Amino acid sequence: MHKYMYTKITQLKLQDIYLLRVLLLNLTVQVFFVTTDCTPQASSLKRKGYKKTTRKQTSKTKGRQGKRGRGRKLKQTTPLSDSSDENCGICGKPEKSEEDWICCDICSIWYHRDCVGLEDETSWLTETTIDDIEEPDATKYINLLKDKIVIDQFPLKIKIIITSEFATPIAFDRIESHYSHPAKVVLTQNNLSKFYDDLIDKFKAWVDQFQERGSGFDFNSIKSVQVKLYKYEYQRASSYIPLQFKSKNIINVQNKNDNKCFLWSILAYLYPVVKNKQRVTNYKEYEDEISMKGIEYPVAKEDIPKVEKQNNLIINVFALKDQTNKQTLYPIYVSNKESEKCYVVDLLYIENNGNAHYCLIKDLDSFMCDNNGHKQFTCRNCIQGFQREETLEKHKKICYDYEPCRTIMPEPGKNILEFNNHHFKNRLPFVIYCDFEACNIPMQSCTPDPDKSYTKPISKQK
Question: Model confidence over 357-386: pLDDT tens digits?
């Protein structure tokens, strides 16, 4: 019998655990449990379980060594798959020169960095841990944290992970918990104050939610803060890309010689033509009607608020998850301006082979009509359709308090939640039943005759 036995288990039942326990008691076998997230298919979707580790550089693997992480030899551990140690666990292709590799800490299989979808290490600016601030109050701590974080260039993405200590007031037990603030894009120095204000609000809400769980632990202090700074590149749209579906509600201006598809799409809405709507020459004479002062071509999503302010417009931008299916539309920018005097321009953002392009959506409601051709009133913030405009207006009062997103309903068969972990249920030591349906009102009555049997009313129930 082999000294090591590797077992891949996707589902464990209670009887399987008993059998496994007997196996471990009677045989000197070491069993390693590997979840299904360690398969090559799941490796390209999840980051958890991966560490920035590269193979030890040899004459064969020259160029694989990364900038961080410790070296590790693959042959020290037998992989769970049939992939050779010279091939990627996802694409199956062999090594290439000057290419980074990633090793999974769970199954020790090597993958190309691009195959697992991890960012290149050159996209990192800095990663620091701050633990020298002694301040128990969370708000004051984060205000002191501002002076510790040094930022030299903009725009960038900031991600902050706060390690906090919670303690019980009676037993003096202490535990640590981590709050991970979502990565945010900071365009200029002026946006930092808004970022820190949002960090304080979200962190306090997380602390309150932690304390309301009933564990008895109260917030004590912040132990350390991990700050990660990433490079950020504007998402820009440039030259012409043909559509992969047909729609009468899309005007795709064919700007093959410039990067002004954003401008031509807006002019196509403000100055419509009857024939040849896709030609740039139909809108050349109106080019100066739109003020693009301080805006660089191709136009980035972050520059759209400037265009709105300079031209008194309301601009919304949408994209397609599937470039061939208009029903996969989702919002990427929804204007927060509200004015009946402004023109509302809806743009479609499409991508192909690293290139991007803006198109005009003439009528979003007609574009998102159902399969029967019935027009619906569409919420631009969540792409939810309604049959009546009054219902849409009521919905918008609630929906626009949240970030733009697309509502995705669960698939049939996966839309019912059931409790299956019955083995976790325990009997309670006692149960109290209370009935508050009646109130006992005291009553006064005559003194009964002690020589006769009697019933004395003392209260009346209501």
Answer: 899 999 888 888 865 667 789 999 898 888
